[in-house]
Amino acid sequence: MLANLCRWSVLFMPLLCQAAPLSVRVMAPDATGVSGVAVYLESGVPMPVAAPRRTVEIQQKDKSFAPYLTVIGNNDKVVFTNRDDITHHIYSVNGPARFSFKIREGEENADQQFNQPGIIAMGCNIHDWMSGYLLVADAAYATTTDSDGWARFDAIEPGDYRVVAWHPQMREPGPLSLQLTVQDRSELNLQLTQPMAEIPRQKGIDDFDFLDGY
Amino acid sequence: MKAVLPVRAVRSVKALVPLLLLLATATQAAEHQVHGLLDLRYSRTDGIAGYLDGDYGKLRYDNGGQWSQAQGALVYSGEFAYNLSLHVIGNSYSDGVRDGAGLTEAYLQYRGLPSQTGLRLEARAGLLYPTVSMENVLTAWASPYTLDYATINSWIGEEVRHQGVEVSVTRLGKFSDSDHDFTLGAALFRGNDPTGAMLAWHGWVLGSRQTLQQETLPLPDIGEWFVPEVSEPFLELDERIGAHLTLQWQWHNRGRVLAGHYDNHGDPRVAENLQWAWRTRFSHLGIKWQLPAQTELIAQYLQGDTLMQSAYTEEDLVKNDYHSAYLMLSKQFQRHRLTARVEEFAVVDNDAITTDNNDEYGKASTLSYGYRFDHHWFAQAEYSWLRSDRPSRGMHGHRPTMTEQQWQLAVRCFF
Fold first, then answer.
1. Do the domains at A1-47+147-196 and A52-139 have one common CATH topology?
2. DSSP-derived 3-state class of residue A201
3. Cβ contact (<8 Å) for B252 and A200?
4. Residues of chain A with confidence (pLDDT) below 70
5. Per CB distance under 8 Å, which residues of A are interface residues toward B?
6. How far is A28 from chain B (nearest CA, A)?
7. Which residue in chain B has the smallest CA separation from A88?
8. pLDDT by residue (tens digit) across A33-47?
9. Between chains, do A208 and B138 touch, taking CB under 8 Å as contact?
10. Where are the domains of chain A?
11. pLDDT score for B395
């Protein structure tokens, strides 16, 4: 089944027992890299050494969520940063974390705790077109793919992992994942079987500053 | 007139009570914000004395050249909780025709969070515009497209405002993977019984002036006993509640369509000091659609009727049908915005009083160019052409059919 969903290739895997870099490339069916996809590594056993805590920034910029999709792992935290010169009212009313807070021009908010794994769909109650996702993964390692489709992890503790890729616009019939034993530097590919759906454009119909709610 | 003043004074005090309550509420607000707008303008008009002066001109400024502070607005917003806020909008005008400063809107707003299924409840209560305009979307009801509003919205700004409660429910499509949002709105209101008088007695106009809450509007000297010198558009005379229903469909990244029906439920036989309650009803349809090449199409249609009767004989003193429609294209490229608008308007007089003939038919075109210097500063140049046929003008020293033109140059600062 999994073999049908994705092709993977481990290119280089010498036997050395220390933290090793891992690169995962998420590819579209036409083999081009797909950017902005969440990639995380689930481990069947508790990690002997916690991965370093990341603070992941979710910006409100140009009246949109940037990035559109953010992923955090077990030890990561999130800070919301409003780069616009207007107030946003960020909310999530479904899923594992339900919250709402206003964030004013230039403010940061690091108060939100995300302990329950799951998908958090976020919106702004002032700008309805704003749409963003936070994936809270029960994973030791998590990141998103770069503009060439690569998710790069600097140092993975050796062990057995399930590598999972996810994006709200994926149209795969099941999870895009594979099992991997990390021993040394590894590179692998995950290929979509279906092209992703179009990401909703985060832009209002009235694209003006000084809109006043009329 | 002397007998009128105390009544008006009492009304003014009564009208101030809700405002004072709102302002008292503002002291409880957790956070205060003030922003606004300044519009400095030079206008050159080729026409006759304008409607603001109580004459038959269809444009805001009188014949000739005029420097003006076309709009100076201050908007106060106070937030209490995440969902509750107070908004007070004041406008001032120094245009050499009718200078003044005062309130145009003041309301409490509730905007709930969407439910788990994407339903959101919103409410506004206070001094409000009905949700009709598709172009007046900026601070203090300014338009990003043109300096002068279309005739429909010039009328809304002049005499269609009320004290009321507006409740709406929106179904946000993104909660169910849909690109479509629907909003159903209902408003109940009072304090706008004379609405319809200006449309009857000076007809459709092309302007950018919002009537201040305390203002009285001079009317042409028609010479009929039932026509007052001025209209006070925001009076409550018959103690009847009006209603406005709206439905909006929004297709993400495509456009939105707004339809509604408005009925002030006025009792047309009620009058005090020649201020009549008019039974004014209209339906409206508006569309804003995004076309290729950063071009927007905006159009509105409004059609309705109004009735005012003698209290004693129940004779129809004024019974009019009216409609207006415009089509506007606006294209933005970098710092530039070019907008063109064409419109048509009419009033059809259906009563038997021929000496007060409200018949009117006209067309107007507006071409506007805006340049954005930075986040706050804009320059705008605009040309308007309006041709109208109004037989009653012929009885008051003007030509029944005339063409008026206006060139305007404005600097606008939003802050």
1. yes
2. coil
3. yes
4. 1-17, 46-52
5. 85, 89, 91, 93-94, 100-102, 121, 123, 125, 128-129, 131, 200-201, 203, 205-206, 208-214
6. 22
7. B82
8. 999 999 999 987 766
9. yes
10. 1-47+147-196, 52-139
11. 87
Cβ–Cβ of B414/A123 closer than 8 Å? Answer: no
> Which residue among A85, A123, A129 places its CB closest to the CB of B252?
A129
Q: Class assignment of domain A52-139?
A: mainly beta
Bridge partners of residue A42, in order along the sequence: A162
As to burial, measured by CB atoms within 10 angstroms (0-12 exposed, 13-18 middle, 19+ buried), residue A85 is exposed
Q: Do B120 and A125 touch (CB under 8 A)?
A: yes
- B404 is written with which tokens? 């008026």
Q: How far lies B172's CA from each of A122, B110, B118, B409, in Å?
A: 13, 17, 5, 41
Which residues of chain B does A133 touch, with a Cβ-Cβ cutoff of 8 Å?
none
Amino acid at B113: L
Structural domain for B349, as ranges: 4-414
Task: Please report, as a single letter, which amino acid is at residue B323.
Answer: H
- Cβ atoms of B403 and B365 within 8 Å: the answer is no
Helix (H, G, I), strand (E, B) or coil at B41: strand
> Which contiguous run of DSSP H or E holds residue B326?
strand B316-333
Contacts of B14 (CB under 8 A, 6+ apart): none
> What's the pLDDT tens digit per position in B293-324?
999 999 999 999 999 999 889 899 999 999 99
Chain B CB contacts of A212 below 8 Å: 75, 137-141
**Domain of residue B311, CATH code:** 2.40.160.10
User: d(Cα B283, Cα A77) in Å, to the nearest integer?
Assistant: 52
Q: From CA B307, how far away is CA B319, in angstroms rounded?
A: 4
Residues of A in contact with B109 (CB under 8 A): 213
Q: Is the pLDDT of residue B256 over 60?
A: yes
Q: With beta carbons under 8 A apart, name residues in chain A contacting B114.
A: 91, 93, 123, 125
Distance CA A59, CA A64 (A): 8
| Burial annotation B307-334 (CB, 10 A radius, 16+ → b, else e) | bbbeeeeeebbbbbebbbbbbbbbebee
Q: Is the pLDDT of residue B180 over 80?
A: yes
HSE on the CB side for B385, CA within 13 Å? Answer: 5
From residue B114, give the alpha-carbon distance in Å to each of B167, B169, B247, B259: 15, 10, 18, 23
Place of tokens 């456009």: B255
Give chain B's domain count: 1
The answer to whether A214 contacts B137, with C-beta atoms less than 8 Å apart, is: yes
3-class SS string, A36-63: CCEEEEEECCCCCCCCCCCEEEEEEECC
CA atoms within 13 A on the CB side of B339: 29
Which residues on B lie below 8 Å from A88 (Cβ)? none
* Of residues B367, B351, B348, the one with CA closest to residue B359: B348
Closest C-alpha among A180, A202, A44 to residue A122:
A202
pLDDT tens digits along B344-357: 999 999 999 999 99
Nearest CA-CA partner of B191 in B5, B4, B18, B2: B18
Is the domain spanning A1-47+147-196 CATH 2.60.40.10? The answer is yes
In 3-state terms, what secondary structure has residue B18? helix
CB A108 within 8 A of CB A57: no
For residue B37, the cross-strand partners are B73, B414
Q: List C-alpha distances in Å: A33 to A24, A113, A148, A195.
A: 10, 32, 5, 11
